[in-house]
Amino acid sequence: TALEHGEGVKKDIELAITWYCLAAGRGSADAQRSLGWIYANGKGVKRDDKLAAYWLDKAAGSGDDYAARLVKRLVDRVGKPDKTGCSHVASAPWLRGRCVTSSCRKIIKMVERLAVDYRLDANLVLAVISAESAFNPAARSAKNAQGLMQLIPETAKRFGVKNVWDKEENLRGGMAYLRWLLAYFNGNVEHALAGYNAGENRVVQYNGVPPYAETKAYVKRILSDYGKRFHHFDKSWLTSAQPTTGLSVVQTEKDAIRGTLGG
Residue 226 CA to chain centroid, in angstroms? Predict the structure, then answer.
């Protein structure tokens, strides 16, 4: 509360959200209601009624009558609550050892901000960045993959990136592709990561992770950092770009579903 309102300390809404998220995850109705209030009013963050509804619904479930009244009005207006919760908060313990400079910490903050827009888990995005570029925005590979999320020119064009060396543009392009892959493979993180490294068509071709040493090591590393094999997804994310083959979205989606189910 002190960080949120600047009472006796410098006001820091991002840090306040981090602490509220920790408390909310432990079942604090006060923290859940506070997060709902912050997102409902756009207090230092982009207003997000669905995320507000998520936290107010949590608080209501914890017995907070005020939150119960607020969430009913919100849900009537915006529909079902979002399910992303605090997934935009970077909490991976390995970050402390790999991201120690002020410039790297700024990248984390940027990812946290964009993760809300893209409905992605910041910890997954950061694990991809760590594997791709080690948080170096000037990284360029032998295959001409560029920037923080190592976009090749074709992928950058596919997702509307004009300046691949601009950190935010690069992140937006990489996150747009990552969430497209998550929707394409029905939330299967392993297949989405393999697609990010080798291309979605290779994953469909091999009905899973392609038998390439680089791709297998890449997927294993990120899964070890992230620790989850499923990520929420929305099929509407598939409209952000087209598959790289000549097939339609519907045709390739069926292939992806077969790959996800392993048959």
Answer: 12
